[in-house]
Amino acid sequence: MPKDTSLNKILLIGSGPIVIGQGCEFDYSGVQACKALKEEGYTVILVNSNPATIMTDPEFADRTYIEPVTPEIVEKIILREKPDALLPTLGGQTGLNTAMELVRRGVLEKNDVKLIGANADAIEKGEDRLAFKEAMIKIGLDIPQSGVAHTLEEANLIAKEISKKTGKRFPLIIRPAYTLGGSGGGIAYNSEEYEEIVNRGLDMSPVTEVLVEESLLGWKEFEMEVMRDRKDNCVVICSIENLDPMGVHTGDSITVAPTQTLTDKEYQIMRDASFAVIREIGVETGGSNIQFSMCPETGRMIVIEMNPRVSRSSALASKATGFPIAKIAAKLAVGYTLDELPNDITRETPASFEPTIDYCVVKIPRFTFEKFPSADPSLTTQMKSVGEAMSIGRTFKDAMQKALRSLETGRFGFGADGKKLKVEGKDHLLSKLAVPNAERIFYLREAFKEGMSVQEMYDITGIDPWFLNQLETICKHEETIQSTKDDIDFRTAKKYGFSDRQIAHLTDQTEIQVRESRKGKGIQPTYRLVDTCAAEFEAFTPYYYSTYGDENETRDGDTNKIMILGGGPNRIGQGIEFDYCCVHAAFALKELGYETIMVNSNPETVSTDYDTSDKLYFEPLTFEDVLNIYEAETPSGTIVQFGGQTPLNLAAGLESNGVKVIGTSPKSIEQAEDRKFFSALLDELNLKQADAGTATSVEEALEIAKKISYPVLVRPSFVLGGRAMVIVYDDQELKSYMTSAVEASPERPVLVDRFLEDATEVDVDVISDGDDSVVGAIMEHIEQAGIHSGDSACVIPPFSLSEKIKIEIADAAKALAKKLEVRGLMNIQFAVKDEELFVIEVNPRASRTVPFVSKTIGVPLAKLAAKVMAGEKLKDLGFTKEINPEHYSVKEAVFPFVKFPGTDIVLGPEMKATGEVMGIDADLGMAFAKSQMAASSPLPTEGNVFISLKDRDKEKAIDIIKEYHDLGFNLFSTEGTAKVIEDAGIPVTRLFKLAEKRRPNVLDMIKNGELNFVINTPSTERSPRADEVKIRSLAVANSIPVMTNLRAAKASALAIRSLKSIKTEVKTIQEFHSEIL
User: Model pTM?
Assistant: First the structure.
């Protein structure tokens, strides 16, 4: 069936900001959909609030709305654009929920907009827990004993029913309907936990519904990625097996493709069941993800759930097989059938051929629990990981070790890399094996070393014996390497996935020595193609993985090559913004006629799409792996400045081994980090910085603090995302920091800086070609200096800086770019205090604000920077002077606090945001209001405000508090703050403090839904009082906006005034750009 020509305009809903449970895999699928639909000649309208994704660049859709993804805003876009159809299945759960809400409100019907990709009934049937259960019973598939509840009373009755049928009261699994990443769900082992999780789940489900089901803990879990078209062609794209048994969310589990432990008969039964499910639910055009569970004792197979949309695993399945699920799904949505669409990789087979793979793929999630020390680090049915790394190998052993070294956690394989785990006795080890956690894979090795058998470990962990046997083989091979150190069998070691670093550790050599002797024996990696068809047909797209076999499938051409190093797995501090820069580099260099080579290990992103660069190497970003690719490809230049800290950490080692780094030299980047050099540079340029010193011991740190006076900001040198960075106020706090943090960077000293209190922080992105430098934008932070720049909201153009300071900032930025010989991008952070300018830090590389700045000014900075690195000049590229936009753009950070109940939400110098959103409007207040809507924390326009301030803030806050009173809010406060408010003549209702143990208190108001807004500034940043933490975390759990500093409270008041006085309008990014360019 050819495409539907009755459609002209198609509206695509994006997934909004990167949050836990909904990562950049949906950006990848959205980008593919935009490209696929434009290719077919449709006018594509996109709505997405995320500036960090390349999808919201103006060339990917015809009309791009960087607006909040809410039903109200999307309705405004529908009225303005009058699309013929809406495609909701490529924007994750956000896209699906928004579309379903528009269906329920009758907006689509009223405006004659057709839902394509999946109809409302199919979405309802797949997402609604009861409808799905009934559908499965109808087709005769087994499902867990379960019931759907809308109240706690109903949930208690269901629990009794299940216990009657199964003979067990607990554990029970709770799954809320229509939430993402298992949000609000969990496993209850007793009635108290059960009530708590059910209440939380009902709260978080947009339809107040939870599914309560019997526990299948310990069962094996599988996923099938399936596609179906209108002609009822069904194909399994990829089968995936979870290494962790049931009880761990699939997004948090180590997964393996294809399935390893199913018999052929079991696989065929599961394949048939998948087709039965997709047919019964009624997904006619596109991809679905179906999850199964199997009892290891009896073989009973159960259907757990289905996502009637492109899912998180779709990106993994696409990268694992080379089959572009999202692209094909978009084409099926507009009428094509699978047999009409060619497979892009072979160009000979149609998309109706099921992919077959002759290698093994392993995905390992990336966690950042170190950012949330009070969070529960155990893994359950609610997702907690922030990213993932994927690897491809000929065997499971090879792929597993490769994936572990791709994680960017300082590990180089399953073990034997010099990293020791703390094991405090047998009981500690057993608990680390029994309770799933981010490090469990490494504790398995410890257990093997302790002599535990595979059977014992299977009994404790439920991990299939096949996987445990494979891991035991790796573990035993360490001894073989150690015992043959004079004559290592490199080929076997490499086939088992051992890195040079591991072999060096086992044989007391350096990594370079191992590399030399390995190459001396002629043991070098060969590269194989990902071809979707187990080498039955020739692959046209060069998409490679390394192996140590005989066949080498690399291709050489005559074109000049440039290699781009990606950023590895997504994590807090290094997000999709860096991937955005890498993708731009690939596009820019292609335009200049270079052959581009991308190296990355992240399956979720656009950089690892098979058609982004000319060649893709899906490999870990380690010295060994990158140097191997360099030697195989011999590119004329390599870009390390775009992928965040990951490739920068490799730069010096690569350069000393002959790799030519283009753009700003790694030496300049190192120099900007060297305190002594940097201080001398600033003196030379007549620029100020806060007094500072460098300490390698507690005594030195105390000495420096005494000299420069408290408060001081302390951090290890060379960190990303403000890791282990804190503000301390006295000797005691400094001592405790030094004893815990000096470990954080043994080779690097600790930096101690005078902290500029109440200063305004400013971020500047600059592009320079060595002769000319242009300031991309000056961004003024809303929060005061001291909050990590990745966590604070920031505004372009600056709204409170004087002209004099703005000129000083631009001059200083250009002088620094010249002095550091920048070729490409540079980011500088300044602080402004009492009309004085201080330099905080300089990073001569692409920063996380590049996409936001580019979208605000309408100039693709990363693309221009890549061309500059390749030798072009800004004059010839037509970008020589600053652009001053007429509108305001606000970038706001998005946080994962909801996933870690009870953690404090106060921001500091260590980054905690997982993603960002952007609000754009001609009015500053409205732009800020939109950014809050987009971050799922919309500001109220009426109601009750609770205010509790630290002593230092009380007097300063009076004008802001008066503003909330003038806006018509009722004010509530505890004794100390209430007195200051009353003394200023503003009416306020007093509440009891929590410590008084008298009621009603603020927690009662929050639980009763009587509060609409909270302003609470913390007493001390290092150790806030437990009562404050309770208030802040409960407010966040109840979706009440909380402001923890006065500047944010002031900006919110301005935004609320705008919301009350002007109409919320929508406008495309293309229209904003046409006004400035």
Answer: 0.93
